[in-house]
Amino acid sequence: MSRKLESMKRQRGTALIMVLLVLALGSLLITPMLNYVSTGLTGVRISEDLLFRQYAADAAVEYSLWQLKYNVDGLTEGLDPENPSSNTTITVNGIEVPIITEISMSPDSENGTFTVLATESGIHVGAALTILPSVWCGSGQKEYVTHLVYIYNYGTSAAHLKSVLQQLDPSLMYVEGSYEGPSATLTKTNVGDHWELYFDFTQPLPKLNSEDIMLISFIAWTRKNMGEHEFSGSGQVTYAAFNTDEVASYSGESGLGAVGLYDITVNVGGYTVLVNVGITEEGELIIRSWQIQ
To answer: What are the residue ranges of CATH 2.60.40.680 in the chain?
Structure first.
């Protein structure tokens, strides 16, 4: 009997040890398991919040496109080279979304695509030309055309501008003394059927800081009655970039087509959508680029 009792005691002791081991192991596992479940639920909430922000940003972009297309609240009429930007805020599913709609200050590239302005390291300069509709003088002998050259630094380093080259429409002549901008010397060169204007900036060279815009303007004239003719022009901006000279090309036409490009910026909780859109003369919208940051 004593052997059986002793054996039973040993078995009970072993069972107690096993129970204690299982309890200890369970206590070690339950905390990570609860943390895992909690982390999973938090991840679901974060994903839902991000999804709501994305929906809100997309809805805000669509709202801005609708405003542009149908000139809601006089948006397209209110935007011009002297007032290039509009700010508004809409509420989508309880989320307030700020919208910035502005005339695009960047030129088209040679292949017709458009690069959304974004902060990049180093020096990056874009330029665009707007030619305003022509105006006849009082005597009706000359037609005057105003050119506006926008220069924009969308990099992180300041740029020192060296010169601006403007190729005039074949029918146009430069109006002496009409230049407005940083101090520069002008050289006019006749090239075949058109004039080219070289504005070489004087020392110290004008400095264009990051995200700054510079406006240069001048007037040209013609004695021809151009009627519905649209004037066009193109040129280049030369700027100092470290030890080399960089060039930014630009082009533009007179009339509404010159200000028919718009940048839309929507930011919701760090989720940013950048859209560039064009409006044709028929009022159709063309999405030229759509970038998410």
So the answer is: 110-255
Answer yes or no: are the C-beta atoms of 112 and 181 closer than 8 Å. no
How far is it, in rounded angstroms, from Cα 146 to Cα 166? 13
What does pTM read for this prediction?
0.52
> What is the DSSP track for 75-110?
HHHH-BTTB-EEEEEEEETTEEEEEEEEE------T
CATH of span 110-255: 2.60.40.680
Distance CA 204, CA 216 (A): 17
CB 242 within 8 A of CB 77: no
- pLDDT tens digits in sequence order for the chain, 293 residues long: 555 545 555 555 566 666 566 566 556 656 665 555 555 544 445 567 777 788 888 888 888 888 888 877 777 777 766 677 888 888 887 888 889 888 775 444 333 333 434 445 567 787 878 787 776 655 557 788 888 888 888 777 888 999 999 999 988 999 999 999 999 999 999 998 899 999 999 998 999 888 788 889 899 988 766 556 678 888 999 998 766 788 888 887 775 443 467 888 888 877 888 887 777 656 677 776 677 77
